[in-house]
Amino acid sequence: MSQAVLDGVRDLLPGIRERADEAERLRVVPEASIKELEEVGFFRLLQPRRFDGLEADPVDFYTAVRDIAGACGSTGWVSSVVGVHPWQIALFPDTAQQAVWGSDTATRVSSSYAPTGKAVVTDGGYTLSGKWSFSSGCDHCSWVLLGGLVFNGEGQVVDFKTFLVPRENYTINDVWNVVGLSGTGSNDIVVEDVFVPADFTLSMSDTGRCFGPGQEQNPSDLYKLPFHSIFTGTITTPIIGMAMGAYAEHVEMQQKRVRAAYLGEKASLDPFAAVRIAKASSDIDAAWALLVNNIREEQACVAKGEKIPLGLRLKVRRDQVLGTQRAIDAIDSLFEASGGRALATGTYLQRAWRDAHAGRVHAANDPERALQMFGAHEFGHKVDPGMY
């Protein structure tokens, strides 16, 4: 079934690429692209089978995201971050799962995980308020996942949770006017004193230890993988896809390019140009290979019923942030060597350059923190596994 989705996604790529300019102009992914991705089953890849999902291999999901981003960075980004949410919802108590998918298994969910909101413990749940930024694809969704610190009656922080909130309980503020990933519609979410039942929350301390109440209903090994491995991969994968798309366009452009400043020399005959694409392609391949290999290692642990070692989880994060950097380095090198025509509106290269650098500023791509944690663990220092 996953292969049918991958094949279907690849058939959609020409149309998605043609709508890339429209996505930037609208500042959201065109509805036509979302509808097509829904129809081929993309958004069901990580969804539980009992709700018409595929419970697919996460590598298949990442492969589809990579290909979509290679056609349009904004569409790839939204596809990734919206498409991964069924994986987390599968960890929520069954009450929440039924609320989201019970009457419509095509329901989509956006998110904003930074704990910029405040939740106060009340009878049966929490009262949630706040403003959250960067909720990519929120206009195409009818629920949202929001991060928030939980305070008790004495004003002390007692937990960090993800809150699942339906569309009627939040407002979307249209603020997304940016130079990169401009088609993602990553607008603000505002919540004012909304009651969230306890069953519609998930503690980050639970997800940090690869646990969620929903595992009782969804026992697949898919839902036993680490949250921070799965979710940070959804941030790096689109950028790797952008690099692949940039590489393909650069090679095509250079095969046709004649360098007037160098007496009509064909760009493809320039030995330095050949070296450049060799290095760029190696960086892209390394980013992708390490992402896939690390997920496979974690899957092997789960399949054997073993706890995933902290060192492996930190290695996933190490290679994830460096994978982002490798992909961006490749895009930078290709863009710099492409000549003035790459600056033209409508070229994939200039858009990939802007989109990839916009994606780089996401918190999941903060390299120093992830690398420091890996190094500290290697030196034998204590590291909080809840964040990785």
User: Please, what is the CATH homologous superfamily of the largest domain?
Assistant: Butyryl-CoA Dehydrogenase, subunit A, domain 3
Task: Estimate the helix proportion, in percent.
Answer: 40-55%
Outline: globular
Please mark out the parts with pLDDT under 50 across 5 or more consecutive residues, or reply none. none
Number of helices: 13
Rg calc: 21 Å
Q: Which topology of the largest domain does CATH recognise? A: Butyryl-CoA Dehydrogenase, subunit A, domain 3
Biggest β-sheet: strands ordered side by side in the sheet? 5-6-2-1-3-4-7
- Count all strands and give the number: 9
Question: Mind describing the biggest β-sheet?
Answer: 7 strands, mixed
- State the distance separating the first and last CA atoms: 31 Å
- Class of the largest domain in CATH? Mainly Alpha
Kindly describe this structure.
The chain has 13 helices and nine strands. The chain has 388 residues and is of the alpha+beta class. It folds into three domains: 2-90, Butyryl-Coa Dehydrogenase, subunit A, domain 1, CATH 1.10.540.10; 108-203, Butyryl-CoA Dehydrogenase, subunit A, domain 2 (Beta Barrel); 225-387, Butyryl-CoA Dehydrogenase, subunit A, domain 3, CATH 1.20.140. Helix 9 packs parallel to helix 11 (310-336). The two termini are 31 Å apart. The relative contact order is 0.12. The mean pLDDT is 94.
Short key terms for the protein model shown above:
single chain; 388 residues; alpha+beta; Butyryl-Coa Dehydrogenase, subunit A, domain 1; Butyryl-CoA Dehydrogenase, subunit A, domain 2; Butyryl-CoA Dehydrogenase, subunit A, domain 3; two-stranded antiparallel ribbon; 13 helices
